[in-house]
TrEMBL record, chains A, B:
<keyword id="KW-0238">DNA-binding</keyword>
<dbReference type="InterPro" id="IPR036388">
    <property type="entry name" value="WH-like_DNA-bd_sf"/>
</dbReference>
<dbReference type="Pfam" id="PF01638">
    <property type="entry name" value="HxlR"/>
</dbReference>
<dbReference type="InterPro" id="IPR036390">
    <property type="entry name" value="WH_DNA-bd_sf"/>
</dbReference>
<dbReference type="InterPro" id="IPR002577">
    <property type="entry name" value="HTH_HxlR"/>
</dbReference>
<dbReference type="GO" id="GO:0003677">
    <property type="term" value="F:DNA binding"/>
</dbReference>
<keyword id="KW-0805">Transcription regulation</keyword>
<protein>
    <submittedName>
        <fullName>HxlR family transcriptional regulator</fullName>
    </submittedName>
</protein>
<keyword id="KW-0804">Transcription</keyword>
<feature type="domain" description="HTH hxlR-type">
    <location>
        <begin position="19"/>
        <end position="117"/>
    </location>
</feature>
Length: 125, 125
DNA sequence: TTATGTACATACAATAAAGTGCGTACAAAT
DNA sequence: ATTTGTACGCACTTTATTGTATGTACATAA
């Protein structure tokens, strides 16, 4: 749980307060959220499908990040109420509109060889 | 210091390995780096100027993030070798080219009222 | 002569994020 | 009768990030 009054939390809050970029990052930052969104860009996924399509993500992380994305309105969940359980995740209109932004970053990263730069510095022999 | 072999670190590494978006985020993620880059978009700044222009950033954070950005090739530093010290920070071509991406995010965030959404969820009365 | 400003460095503490290892309930397949 | 699969929940530990409190060296201003 977060400490509401830590300098840490307050700093983050003030930054998001007047910057769309910081606000965006606050909601989709972290290791997994963008990957989840990116995976959902073309079609909806069931929970386990999503898990299989994202290497190394644990169930805890997937559940946690998904529910946060749902709360924040980027992803929507359809629960079929069946047993065994079946759920389906897809992007909301907000999430879909964000794909254009991601594609922009993607293209920029490719034309600037960002993977190469990152690997050179942070290692991946 | 980072633990090279933690699952944590390995996961991050594998994600950046083949995704320009993850690679980009790895280099400019965190609380302060984008703000620093954003501040430098129009002109170069001296160290203390930058500090004054970014509310609440501590000297440790500013120094640390700046040197990381310099290492990664987003920002360049000019040290005048004077006493009292004088240094100047500005964007490299890579950093400058990234401003277009940030503007894109900025515009998207504005038209989608991201600040409003973020504040509604994470509070800022 | 005491204070102020510059651009840092560093030990340490606090906070946040991510990962591990368990358990649930029910159903169908082996 | 035991295993496998689905979609989670939760207590706990490990890592990572951020912040706090100092100190440095020299110079000019009050």
């Amino acid at each position: 749980m977060r400490k509401q009054n830590s300098t840490n939390a307050l700093n983050e809050q003030q930054l998001t307060f007047n910057c769309p970029i910081a606000s965006t990052l606050k909601m989709v930052g972290g290791r997994w959220k963008l990957i989840i969104i990116w995976n959902l860009r073309e079609k909806s996924f069931r929970y386990k499908e999503l898990q299989r399509s994202i290497p190394n993500i644990t169930e805890k992380m997937l559940t946690q990040q998904l529910s946060s994305l749902v709360e924040d309105g980027w992803v929507q969940k359809k629960d079929y109420g069946e047993i065994p359980p079946r759920t389906e995740y897809s992007l909301t209109p907000l999430g879909k509109s964000f794909i254009a932004v991601l594609e922009h970053i993607y293209d920029w990263g490719k034309s600037n060889n960002i993977i190469g730069i990152a690997n050179a510095r942070y290692g991946n022999e």
